[in-house]
Specification:
The chain is of the alpha/beta class. It contains 9 helices and 10 strands. It has an 8-stranded mixed beta sheet with strand order 1-2-3-4-5-6-8-10, covered by helices on one side. The chain has a two-stranded antiparallel ribbon with strand order 7-9. Strand 3, helix 4 and strand 4 form a beta-alpha-beta unit. Helix 2 runs parallel beside helix 4, helix 4 runs parallel beside helix 5 and helix 7 packs across helix 8. The chain is globular.
């Protein structure tokens, strides 16, 4: 039996505050995610803040040094197990930040997501991290809880990552691959990564040939300008190319800036502007597009 969706209000404290810090934990944290449609447990494999992207909209403050350069698997397991027990017993729902939520939200774990202060696929033992999460999930009989990878796609071609994805394939799971641009120039401007754009596109394609993926795209104003029609057309063509070459895209998550950005010229779209872009993507690609403003 699938977990029913419950409406999520933007005014809830747990929705407004998406901090990746919980108690004295290093790796694991709870959030209410609209894209996950409920309670998501984040597993931050990058408390050192290492990332191969430097997105203009990223809220991670890399001026402040991170911690824990190596992932302590035993600590990840302990934090995850403690938090799951706390949730299932109703303890999370009693905390002030989560107290206004219906118990059906605060006690139902939608997913366990690899997402944090950097790119999760940069760790050398990603497959072991996935196996750990799968084992804990099994210990608590969380059969319907998904394992989610939120990724910039740069590391999807690594051997340990591919092995991790194969483990994910044995469970309810999703891969959310980032694509914010249609051209190399816009990719360089917004994502500011040394990774070649064609490697990102190739990794998305090859991963989508094996299992359906979700494309996550952040749209924003750059120096007060919405993405140009030419750039949007190029973006749609990238999606169409993936599908034409045998890749499967389950849906697009189109969203915009939600928190303060490091660059003052990287700003939020209005709901209407985001919906206009989404309508064009639907028209040009025939793909399902969900918006989150």
């Amino acid at each position: 039996m699938s977990i029913p969706a419950i409406p999520i209000l933007n005014t809830w404290a747990a929705v407004l505050d998406h901090t990746r810090r919980y108690q004295d934990f290093t790796y694991v944290y709870p959030v209410i995610s609209r894209r996950s449609r409920g309670l998501s447990l984040g597993v931050n494999l990058n408390p050192d803040k290492v990332c191969n992207f430097d997105c203009v909209y990223c809220e991670v403050d890399r001026r402040v040094p991170g911690k824990a350069k190596d992932v302590d698997l035993a600590q990840v397991r302990d934090e995850l197990r403690w938090l799951i027990r706390h949730i299932l017993s109703g303890g999370l729902g009693a905390e002030p930040k989560f107290a206004e939520l219906p118990s059906a939200l605060s006690r139902r774990i939608r997913d366990i997501a690899f997402s944090g202060d950097g790119e999760p696929t940069m760790v050398h033992n990603f497959d072991q991290c996935v196996q750990l999460v799968a084992g804990v999930k099994s210990d608590f009989n969380l059969a319907e809880t998904k394992i989610v990878l939120i990724t910039d796609a740069a590391g999807l071609d690594k051997a340990s990552v591919k092995q991790g994805l194969e483990i994910m394939d044995q469970h309810p799971s999703e891969i959310w691959g980032k694509l914010d641009a249609g051209t190399e120039a816009f990719y360089r401007e917004v994502n500011r990564s040394p990774i070649r754009f064609d490697r990102i596109l190739s990794n998305l394609l090859e991963t989508a040939r094996v299992r359906p993926i979700i494309i996550q795209s952040l749209f924003l104003k750059v120096r007060e300008k919405v993405m140009s029609p030419e750039e949007l057309e190029a973006y749609c063509e990238r999606l169409n190319h993936i599908v034409k070459q045998g890749g499967r895209i389950r849906e697009i998550h189109a969203y915009t800036v939600a928190r303060p950005t490091p660059e003052p010229w990287a700003t939020k779209l209005t709901g209407e502007e985001l919906e206009t872009l989404a309508a064009t993507i639907r028209q040009r690609t025939s793909l399902k597009v969900l918006t989150f403003d």
